[in-house]
Design a protein that fits this description.
Length: 328
C-alpha cells in the first residue's frame, strides 16, 4: 500500500507508473497504468526508452484511502504473439468479465493490440493467444456506451506507427501528411459482444476546428498525436488526446462516438517529461483526470508517475483547464 493519495502528487512511489486508465469497478477506483523500467538503451522519438514489459493494477476505495498495488497482472512473456514494449493499456467490464486491452510489438516488430480477461478487476489477466485481428498501432481505449455497444479507439504517431497504416497496410517507410494537409486522426472500431474482436474496420476519426475545417498536420498545438480517450457528459461525447510534440492534453466534442469531433481547447498544459497520457472518470458525482509526469524521477530516463486532479466543467459543457503545479 502507499500513503493516502493527494491531488497532483504521485499515487505510488515504489514503482514508476504511466499512462493511467482509471475506471470505477465494484464501487472502487481501479487504475491500469503501464510500468516504466530502468534501461540502458537509446532515448529517441521512436520511444525505445519505454521498454515496459508488464502491468500492475492499482486501486483505492476513495481519495481518502491508501492506494493498493495488486501486483503484476500480466507479463509480455505470457502473451504468445507479443515480443516487447507493453505500452499504455485500458480496461473494461462487460458480460460479467473484466477485459484488459494492451499494445505490444509482435514478433515482426509491428505494434498490435491484444486483450486479456479476468474474473476480477484486480486481475491476474489471461491473454488471448492472438492479437485482435484488424488492430494496429498503440494506446487502446475502450468506451462502452449506454446502449452497451463497446468501441475501441486507438493510435499513436511516430513510435506508435500510425503513419505507417495510411493505406490500410503496414508500410515501413511511410511518412505523415504534409503540414497543410489534414492531420491523421485516431482510429475507432466497434467491438464484438464478447469484446474479443472488431465487428467493423477501423475508421479514422475526423477532428475539425470551430469552422468545420480539419485540423492540419502542422498545427501541433491542436492536432492529434496519441493517447485517445472517450467519455460522455450530458449526452455529448468527449474525445481527449495528447498533442505529443507540444506536450498538451486537449479535447474535442461530438455527437457520435465515431466522430466527427470539434476541437475545444486544452485540459492540461505541459508537465515535467516529454509525454502526456490520461483518462477521465466520474466517481461519487465528481469528475477526475488521471495523468502522469516525471516529477518523481526528476526526468531521469523519462520514468513517469501517475497523478490525479479533479476535473470541472463550465455551464456550456467545456472543460476548465487544470493547473498541474498549483501553488501550495
Amino acid at each position: 500500500m502507499s500513503e493516502l493519495p493527494k491531488q497532483h502528487q504521485p499515487l505510488v512511489s515504489h514503482i514508476y507508473t504511466a499512462d493511467p486508465s482509471a475506471h470505477v469497478f465494484e464501487d472502487r477506483i481501479y487504475i491500469y497504468p503501464s510500468h516504466d523500467l530502468d534501461h540502458d538503451g537509446e532515448i529517441n522519438d521512436n520511444g525505445d526508452q519505454y521498454r515496459m514489459e508488464d502491468y500492475h493494477v492499482l486501486s483505492m476505495a476513495d481519495f481518502n484511502s491508501p492506494v493498493v498495488d495488486h501486483g503484476q497482472v500480466l507479463h509480455v512473456k505470457d502473451v504468445p504473439w507479443a515480443s516487447s514494449q507493453m505500452w499504455a493499456p485500458d480496461a473494461a467490464f462487460k458480460n460479467g468479465k473484466y477485459y484488459l486491452f494492451f499494445p505490444a510489438r509482435d514478433h515482426e516488430g509491428i505494434f498490435r493490440i491484444g486483450v486479456a480477461t479476468s474474473a476480477s478487476p484486480a486481475g491476474p489477466f489471461e491473454p488471448e493467444a492472438n492479437y485482435i485481428e484488424g488492430s494496429f498501432s498503440i494506446d487502446p481505449a475502450v468506451f462502452v456506451d449506454e446502449d452497451d455497444q463497446a468501441y475501441m479507439v486507438f493510435g499513436g504517431l511516430w513510435g506508435g506507427q500510425l503513419e505507417k497504416w495510411q493505406t490500410g497496410k503496414f508500410v515501413e517507410d511511410a511518412e505523415g501528411p504534409a503540414p497543410d494537409a489534414p492531420a491523421l486522426g485516431p482510429r475507432i472500431a466497434k467491438l464484438s459482444d464478447d469484446m474479443l474482436s472488431l465487428t467493423t474496420e477501423a475508421h479514422e476519426i475526423l477532428i475539425v476546428d470551430q469552422d468545420g475545417n480539419p485540423i492540419p498536420a502542422g498545427d501541433e498545438d491542436r492536432r492529434y498525436f496519441e493517447g485517445p480517450w472517450i467519455h460522455k457528459y450530458n449526452g455529448k461525447y468527449y474525445l481527449s488526446f495528447s498533442t505529443g510534440s507540444t506536450h498538451k492534453l486537449v479535447y474535442a466534442i461530438g455527437d457520435n462516438p465515431m466522430g466527427p469531433y470539434t476541437y475545444q481547447g486544452t485540459i492540461l498544459p505541459p508537465v515535467i517529461g516529454w509525454t502526456t497520457h490520461h483518462s477521465i472518470v466520474e466517481f461519487q458525482e465528481k469528475w477526475y483526470l488521471f495523468y502522469h509526469d516525471c516529477s518523481l524521477s526528476e526526468g531521469v530516463d523519462y520514468k513517469r508517475n501517475v497523478k490525479y486532479a479533479e476535473l470541472t466543467y463550465n455551464p456550456d459543457g467545456t472543460i476548465r483547464m487544470i493547473d498541474p503545479y498549483p501553488e501550495s
